[in-house]
Write a structure and sequence with these properties.
Blueprint lengths: L7 H54 L16 E3 L3 E13 L2 E8 L6 E10 L6 E9 L4
Antiparallel strand pairs: 1-2, 2-3, 2-4, 4-5
């Protein structure tokens, strides 16, 4: 006797397999929904950090300011209208051979090499923080 259609076992296996696949896809989709708001906040934060770093570099190249101007006392913490907090840290640099590492020690006006770090955090989500960093050297006379 020939029957068209699926048997009960085939139907149960198909539904089980479909449920397993759907669970994996739903969890992947849910994970991306959780991450997406943070991603959309990162671009403005990065632009704010890079913009401030460009301002610091302009001060570095300004003949009236220059390297001696780049100290923490000249740059404070800022609460920005866009819902972000921006902090500038100007620290000294530890040199070991060919490698440079930013220290936690605030730089003085006379340091030869300085580390400029700008951190931007979202006020509504302080765990979301981006950072831009560069080194500057005092030109040799």
């Amino acid at each position: 006797m020939k029957s068209s259609g699926f048997t009960l076992i085939e139907s149960i296996l198909f539904i089980t397999l479909l449920a397993l696949l759907a669970t994996g896809l739903v969890s992947l989709f849910a994970r991306h929904l959780v991450l997406f708001p943070h991603t959309s906040q990162m671009l403005p934060a990065l632009l704010l950090a890079d913009g401030k770093l460009a301002s610091l570099m302009a001060d570095y190249h300004d003949p009236d300011k220059g390297m001696n101007w780049l100290v923490d006392g000249n740059y404070g913490e800022e609460s920005l209208a866009e819902g972000y907090r921006r902090v500038v840290a100007i620290t000294s640099v530890q040199v070991a051979g060919d490698s440079y590492q930013c220290s936690d020690t605030p730089a003085s006006g006379t340091d030869t090499i300085k580390c400029l770090t700008v951190r931007v955090a979202a006020l509504e989500n302080p765990l979301l923080t981006v950072q831009s960093r560069t080194l500057v050297w005092r030109a040799s006379p």
